[in-house]
Structure of Alpha-soluble NSF attachment protein:
Amino acid sequence: MGRFTIAAKHHITVAEIYETELTDMEKAVQNYEKAADYYKGENSTSSANKCLLKVAQFSASMENYEKAIEIYEEVAKPCMDNSLLKYSVKDHFFHASVCHMCMDTVNAQIAVKSYEEQFPAFSDSRECKLVKNLLQAVEDENVDQFTDVLKDYDSISRLDPFLTTLLLRVKKQLNAEPELC
């Protein structure tokens, strides 16, 4: 009867208030998750996915990368079979790959291979090539190469602030590694 949709919209409004005015990301995440659940109850997959992507973004911002990766992969899988949504799959896998890089580069390499097997079009995307080049730079422990790869990509396609923040975290880890030894 649409009541779940109304409840979902209210939760989104509350989440936006927590996000913008109160800057309490944990409560914003909780409300976006509830909204996504309500949208799923109404079979409104696109609205649910929109909320889930917000949850993934905030989770990654709060360094809860496992949850973010899980959501990006969950949202990407049904999109692969939909001709209208298949173009967004590379973005979801790209975000998940960057989250993997923030945690562990070995798992990131495994994840990228998995994404390429699941969705062969991801292999040819600029985003996949960027992740592979960044992983190579991390493996070589070459901060300059890492920076150059990002500059080359950013000169054509601007990275959003969220991805920039995550990639800076990876770069800081790269800078910190030699000091630990």
